[in-house]
Amino acid sequence: MFVGDPPRVVAIGRVHATGSTIHTLSLREYLSRVVVEKVKVVDAEVPEPTSEIRFVGQALVTFIAWPTHLLKVISKKIRYDCHHFSSCYLN
Question: How far is CA 8 from the centre of its chain?
Answer without folding.
Answer: 15
